[in-house]
Amino acid sequence: MRRLRRIGSGAAALLLLVGLLTACSSSTNQSASCTVSPNGTPVTSGVPAEPSSTNLALHPEVATGYRTGMTAVRTGDFAVSTANPVATEAACRVLRDGGTAADALIVAQTVLNLVEPQATGIGGGAFLMYYDAAGKTVDAYDGRETAPAAATEDYLRYISAADHTVPQPNARASGRSIGTPGVLRMLELAHNEHGKQAWKDLFAPAINLADQGFEISPRMAGQISDSKTDLARDANARAYFLQPDGSPKPSGTTLTNPAFAKTLSAIASDGANAFYTGAIAADIVDTAATTSGGRTPGLLSLADLQSYQAKKRTAVCSPYRAHEICGMPNPSSGGITVEAALGILSNFDLASMKPTDLGGDSDTARDGGKPTAEAVHLIAEAERLAYADRDKYIADSDFVPLPGNSPQALLDPNYLKQRAALIDPTKSLGTAKPGDFGPVPVGDGPQQPEHGTSHISIVDKYGNAASMTTTVESAFGSFHFVDGFILNNQLTDFSAEPVDKDGTPVANRLDPGKRPRSSMAPTLVFDRNPDGTRGGLSYVTGSPGGAVIIQFVVKTLVGMLDWGMNPQQAVSMIDFGAANSPTTYVGGEHPAVNAADNGDHDPLVQKLRQYGDQVSVAPQSSGLSALVRDGNGWIGGADPRREGAVLGGPR
Ligand code: GLU
């Protein structure tokens, strides 16, 4: 076992260590467990190298390079993976102490609010897939933000019906992008149904960390630097993230967040009502309505917050090879689109198209090897076809029904077989046409990648599992900062234009109370019994990445299910795929991709171009995690492109 990169040094690391050790004593055990080594560094496996010097400037959230040679983490009967080692460790301790996956989620989410505020926090939304082992049930929880009741279909593009100027300084950084946050109500609902430890105790790790201080990580520092102009517009954000002279606080700076400690203390004592009503709700409404810095106010109201409801949806489950994949239904397009792509791919013998240079088990993982052009082309084509349907048909089904009023029409095996027949193994479709399900509203085309999101995968001692993707939408959301947390800009996931060029209303247009379409794809995979019924839980996975999440998750599932990769190999593997456009992405940050001269010298890129794929080697910024059951417990992998870590019980 090797150690993850140091997360701190000097006095701040000591403060952090003291905080963590008061919750749980340290151990020198070097196997995967919730331990803190003497220098304050969480123990995990992996061989994290310094970030590569790849040019990552193309991404809205700056990536932190690629940690080559990471190896899988083998744990006992519980495991957790989050995007930050401090959050992973705090959640791991709850699991070790008998908490459930639902308990550990609350700890992970609140600690991430501090150490990864660019991606996630209680001012945002989330989707959660939860497996309850005792009841053998799979629940899909929807904590997606809603549009304010006062929002009109032009809310994001015009200041008012009388004033057709655009919100200032732009829709995202104005108050107009802020939806009613949903994650806390959702966690409360999941905790009511699946929690074991007292709600009030689960906030202590984040309260301690906020009071005692923690260090800004390299990734967080990069994001602050990238967003400094927008953060400077908001007095609270400026004071927290920037130095007095306006320069960004660098990596290693100690941050305390007493306002967040106070917020969490109120929520710990009084439940999520402390957030959705009373003083915190009033602060949120005032902040969304601010005109400071020349910002156009949002119309979020106390009534929007008070009436917000997290929802339980029916999980979307469909067979893939010997497994059953369960994902999130709309308003996320994630589950349906991942499963549609896999359903199309089940008509091809992908197992015979394994990546080359894969090496053996985790100790010779070789970052997932190099996928073949044949396989990348096929998978990208299946994704084009799946995205074509997504773009046209999927939105919040409480407002816009799916074809056939159910996800199953888009996932019907016969329909997907017809879609598979459209694929030519040596020629790109370019842009695929959606299937014909009659006159339903036309969609708004593929989204650009956004990166204000985090994924958490957890399995507990009781066999329960949680796969939760949680987001403030773009890095630092709307840049409005209140009571220690960032407010989301989730409403920019609505189509800005309510009608398409023919005047037909788009499915994902903005309506009051509606939830914007998402691509988040928290996923649970089960074995399938010979009679087709659901067997045991075998995989937990998910990723941030905006609309590209779907491609990241498909790649990882194919790596594990078709190519027999361990979870670290599958998440480390080159990120590749396509939305419904002629561009096929091959992540140029990966050490096995020669991204020089636009990939002109890379054999995989060359071959794909022969098929007619327009290949982009822009660096990808997935934040995948995957946990896989084996005979002795769980094996985990965390994305080498971010700062995540896996920890768990000892074997
Ligand atoms: N807001 C996006 C969605 O719901 C996620 C953004 C991201 O992953 O960075 O699909």
Nutshell version of this structure?
By secondary structure, the protein is of the alpha+beta class.
Which helices and strands occur, and which strands form pairs?
Layout: H1 10-23, E1 73-75, E2 79-82, H2 85-96, H3 101-115, E3 125-132, E4 137-143, H4 183-194, H5 204-212, E5 214-215, H6 218-226, H7 228-232, H8 235-241, E6 254-255, H9 258-270, H10 273-276, H11 278-288, H12 302-307, E7 311-313, E8 316-320, E9 323-327, H13 334-345, H14 373-393, H15 408-411, H16 413-420, E10 452-459, E11 465-473, E12 480-482, E13 485-487, E14 523-528, E15 534-542, H17 549-561, H18 567-572, E16 576-577, E17 583-586, H19 603-610, E18 614-616, E19 625-630, E20 633-638, E21 645-648
Parallel strand pairs: 17-18
Antiparallel strand pairs: 1-20, 2-10, 2-21, 3-4, 3-11, 4-7, 5-6, 8-9, 9-14, 10-11, 12-13, 14-15, 15-19, 16-17, 19-20
Helix pairs in contact: 1-5, 2-3, 3-4, 3-5, 5-9, 13-14, 13-16, 13-17, 14-19
This protein binds glutamic acid.
Structure description:
The chain has 651 residues and is α+β, with helices and mostly antiparallel strands. It has a single domain, classed as Gamma-glutamyltranspeptidase, small (S) subunit (Glutamine Phosphoribosylpyrophosphate, subunit 1, domain 1, 4-Layer Sandwich), CATH 3.60.20. It has 19 helices and 21 strands. It has helices spanning 10-23, 85-96, 101-115, 183-194, 204-212, 218-226, 228-232, 235-241, 258-270, 273-276, 278-288, 302-307, 334-345, 373-393, 408-411, 413-420, 549-561, 567-572, 603-610, and strands at 73-75, 79-82, 125-132, 137-143, 214-215, 254-255, 311-313, 316-320, 323-327, 452-459, 465-473, 480-482, 485-487, 523-528, 534-542, 576-577, 583-586, 614-616, 625-630, 633-638, 645-648. Strands 1-20-19-15-14-9-8 form a 7-stranded antiparallel sheet. A hairpin with a 5-residue loop joins strand 16 (576-577) and strand 17. Helix 3 (101-115) packs parallel to helix 5 and helix 13 packs across helix 17. The longest helix has 21 residues, at 373-393. Mean pLDDT is 88; it is low at 1-31, 36-62 and 441-450. The structure holds glutamic acid. Glutamic acid (GLU) binds at residues 450-453, 471, 473, 493, 518-520, 544-546, 549.
